[in-house]
């Protein structure tokens, strides 16, 4: 089933609003359902984290999807690239530039009962948006919480969410953006190390999810957008970059992968594989000029972007 929130074609270079599936699924209740404007981009794995959290809480949080970031090719009259192609740059909606100091997605803006967006209360940074959505959803049972109410488990999940972000997500861009083959493989090995560490802890919990028993957490959500996208490695970098699911150290990770991507709330968030494969080619051929790509190009990791050094 194709998720209605993702447009079939790239949006034009202005803000495109797409209806929320959460509102379509909401059931009548006496409780006031929190409402958000969700500034996003269909292709962005960081934003995908917020999307998964929002769809996990469908019916408990209502949101309006706004496609607020995309790509444009600028004229290359001076042959700056030397490739015969122009660089690809992000265009950004004015609302995104107003509400997020880094102008990055995801950005969540609460909407009051009168339909007015409280831009001064915008929430951003992908891992933080997961926690925020979970808090305002206030689910009725513990198993629906992405951040456990138990202080120890909450601390453990936040630690691991940060760990997989650094060790299993950021190296993804090193494999794609770095030009030197040795550096690409070093990033791939770092990524595999991160996946194996995660797999080991999932195995300790009993499998299926980070906390065990099939319960989703912010740690699972932190990794899922990248886990879905690892298929692009083999296409752009060769068979030696395929994730070796057959290795014993990744057995629990493979079980986790199969489980989380079978969930209906997750399946409706997944971008089309062929469309995403074409999109990510901008990173694979070094023509993307985003903050993440620029950070990796200057030798740091994707989670170490600098608004001044990596601007474009």
What would your notes on this structure say?
- The chain is of the alpha/beta class and 312 residues long.
- The protein contains 13 helices and eight strands.
- It has helices spanning 21-25, 45-56, 94-99, 126-137, 151-169, 171-177, 181-205, 218-229, 232-237, 251-260, 264-267, 273-284, 291-297; strands at 16-18, 35-40, 62-67, 69-73, 88-92, 107-111, 123-124, 288-289.
- The chain has a five-stranded mixed beta sheet.
- Helix 5 (151-169) runs antiparallel to helix 7, helix 5 runs parallel beside helix 8 and helix 7 (181-205) crosses helix 10 (251-260).
- It is globular, with a radius of gyration of 19 Å.
Could you give the count of β-strands? 8
Radius of gyration: 19 Å
Low-confidence stretches: 1-19
Whole-Å distance between the termini?
37 Å
The best one-word shape is globular
Strand order in the largest sheet: 1-3-2-6-7
DSSP helix count? 13
Compute the average pLDDT: 89
| Proportion in β-strands | 5-15%
How would you sum up the major sheet? 5 strands, mixed
| Helical content (DSSP H or I, runs of 4+) | 40-55%
Name the helix and strand elements from N-terminus to C-terminus, one letter apiece: EHEHEEEHEEHHHHHHHHHEH
Structural class: alpha/beta
């Amino acid at each position: 089933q194709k998720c209605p929130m993702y447009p079939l074609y790239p949006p034009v270079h202005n803000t495109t609003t797409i209806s929320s599936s959460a509102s379509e699924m909401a059931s009548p209740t006496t409780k006031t359902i929190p409402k958000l404007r969700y500034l996003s981009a269909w292709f962005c794995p960081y934003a995908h984290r917020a999307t998964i959290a929002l769809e996990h809480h469908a019916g408990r949080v209502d949101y309006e999807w706004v496609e607020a970031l995309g790509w444009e090719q600028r004229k290359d009259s001076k042959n700056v690239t030397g490739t015969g192609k122009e660089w690809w740059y992000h265009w950004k909606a004015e609302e995104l530039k107003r509400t997020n100091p880094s102008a990055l997605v995801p950005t969540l803006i609460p909407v009051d009962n009168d339909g007015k967006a409280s831009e001064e209360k915008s929430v951003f940074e992908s891992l933080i948006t997961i926690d925020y959505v979970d808090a305002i959803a206030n689910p009725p049972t513990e198993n629906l919480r992405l951040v456990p109410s138990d202080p120890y488990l909450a601390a453990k999940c936040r630690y691991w969410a940060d760990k997989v972000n650094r060790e299993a997500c950021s190296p993804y861009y090193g494999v794609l953006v770095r030009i030197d083959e040795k550096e690409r493989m070093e990033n791939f090995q770092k990524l595999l190390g991160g996946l194996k560490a995660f797999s080991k802890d999932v195995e300790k919990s009993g499998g299926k999810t980070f906390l065990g028993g099939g319960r989703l957490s912010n740690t699972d959500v932190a990794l899922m957008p990248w886990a879905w996208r690892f298929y692009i490695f083999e296409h752009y970098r060769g068979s030696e970059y395929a994730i070796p699911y057959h290795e014993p150290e990744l057995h629990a990770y493979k079980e986790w992968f199969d489980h989380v991507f079978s969930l209906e709330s997750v399946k409706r968030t997944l971008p089309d594989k062929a469309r995403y494969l074409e999109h990510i080619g901008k990173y694979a051929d070094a023509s993307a000029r985003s903050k993440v790509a620029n950070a990796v190009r200057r030798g740091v990791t994707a989670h170490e972007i600098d608004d001044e050094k990596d601007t474009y």
